[in-house]
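note to self — DONT lose this again. spent like an hour looking for the file last time. sequence + predicted structure for the chain T wanted, 137 res
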Amino acid sequence: MTRMEHNKIQSLPRQEVAVATHTIFISDLVVDMMIGVYDFEKLKSQPVRLNIEMTVLDHVGPINDDYHNVVCYETIANTVKKLVQEEHINLVETLAEKVSEICLDHQRVTEAKIKVEKLSAVKDAASVGIEITRIKR
């Protein structure tokens, strides 16, 4: 190969290192809470079902069967339960955003998918609600 040919060789782009992740989920968490914009909804709690899915960066090093080395789904669930007991929330959209913030507050959670369903809001419907996905930037 001549010197001129050698100068025409371009380096291949660097490959990004794959990030290892896993998914943690909390399925069908049903809570009674004060939610809704109508006056009658501000007088009585109603059932709401939450489904939470989190993309989590894998722990660096061995887990060693120690819950301190994982994102604890019980901690997330208990924080959500505390939230819904503390305040009236008007919109399912607001509740979904607040739950996503709880999830994304954890250092290793990179994405949160939240589904909120009001179970008794519309007659003849099993549920109504919203599903959002939020990514940590």
